[in-house]
Amino acid sequence: PGESKSVEFTLTPKNLMVIDGDGNLVMESGPIEIAIGGGLPGFIPATSGCSGTTVQVKAN
Questions:
Q1: Cα separation of 50 and 18, whole Å?
Q2: What is the DSSP letter of 7?
Q3: Which pTM does this prediction carry?
Q4: What are the residues facing 44 on neighbouring strands?
Q5: Distance of CA 39 to the CA centre of its chain
Q6: Burial code of 23-53, b = ≥16 C-beta within 10 A, e = fewer?
Q7: 14-44 confidence digits (pLDDT tens)
Q8: Which of 5, 9, 13, 43 could join 37 via S-S bond, C-beta 3.0 to 4.6 A?
Q9: For 43-60, how does the pLDDT look when each residue is reduced to its tens digit (9 = 90+)?
Q10: How far apart (Å, rounded) are the C-alpha atoms in residues 10 and 13?
């Protein structure tokens, strides 16, 4: 109890991609919720986002 730590990390657009209903790897526009922590409750939510249109990425 009472312990705290500072962490820093970088998320790239690739880290925020999801697989859509057709199985395509895409980056959707709109808010993205990022939760940090070991369990619920007790996580720290943050919201970020991507503006623009959904982009499909072809995997090699």
A1: 13
A2: -
A3: 0.45
A4: 36
A5: 17
A6: eeeebbeeebeeeeeeeeeeeeeeeeeeeee
A7: 888 888 899 988 888 777 777 666 665 665 6
A8: 43
A9: 566 666 556 665 555 655
A10: 10
For residues 32 and 18, give the distance between their C-alpha atoms in angstroms, rounded to a whole number. Answer: 11
- 15 token code pair: 């880290």
Q: Please give the structure tokens belonging to residue 56.
A: 């499909």
**What is the pLDDT, as a whole number, of residue 56?**
57
Asked if 5 and 44 count as a contact pair (C-beta separation under 8 A), the reply is no
E strand map for 1-60: 18-19, 25-27, 30-36, 44-50, 55-57
In the chain, the amino acid numbered 14 is K
